[in-house]
């Protein structure tokens, strides 16, 4: 039998695999991830902290991946919509939501953020778009342009469509990038133990 501690996606992603129970405490109960999900998922503790802050609201998780955030939102929020472009990841997200018994609270939408988001009526849009993979660290100051799709486009669109906007950003993000929006915001540091994992920006309504 294969050693379950060896990362199935290769040595490069081993450090993320070693943290799999921080990503999903119920990982061994049938959680499914792919390569991109493994290095992008919000650790469960951080996802729950954000869900608690947004308690009882209707949430759109606009870059849902394999459901890490959506599962946390489903436990504390009124209703969750989750958009994901990739068909396989939508299926993994449904499976993962079943592992946590919250699949009925999430509406899974396969498609493009810019096409699907305007059809959703939500109080809050939660944005956790791709950063281009683990190499993001080679960038001295991460800018909105480095998100894919482009972060300026993602945010401009979000402000047009939703009353409240929340975006998760890398540790090396240049906060001057947010000034152009002329909106107040709060930054929450996402810790895992002593380690700063990411930051999350809550724009005021
Ligand atoms: P990291 O900085 O790549 O890992 O990702 P780590 O273990 O902090 O690296 P170290 O070697 O400096 O210790 C930290 C967290 O950021 C991950 O667990 C993900 O939650 C998130 N993250 C990382 N990447 C590469 C991405 C990404 O491409 N997209 C998104 N949305 N999140 C990411």
What gap, in angstroms, lies between the N and C termini?
Answer: 53 Å
Shape: globular
Secondary structure tally, helices: 8
Summed over residues and divided by their number, the pLDDT gives a mean of 97
- The helix/strand class is alpha/beta
Radius of gyration: 16 Å
H-E string? HHHHEHEHEHEHEEE
Strand order across the biggest sheet? 3-2-1-4-5-7-6
Q: Which spans have pLDDT < 50 for at least 5 consecutive residues?
A: none
The largest sheet, given as strand count, sense and whether it forms a barrel, is: 7 strands, mixed
Number of strands: 7
Ions, cofactors and other ligands present here are: 7-methyl-guanosine-5'-triphosphate
- The percentage of residues in β strands lies in 15-25%
Helix content class:
25-40%
Give an overview in words.
This protein is α/β, with parallel strands linked by helices and 205 residues long. It is 30% helix and 20% strand. The protein has a seven-stranded mixed beta sheet with strand order 3-2-1-4-5-7-6. Helix 8 (151-161) links the parallel strand 4 and strand 5. Helix 4 packs across helix 5. The protein is globular and about 55 Å long. The termini are far apart. The model has no long low-confidence stretch (mean pLDDT 97). It binds 7-methyl-guanosine-5'-triphosphate (MGP).
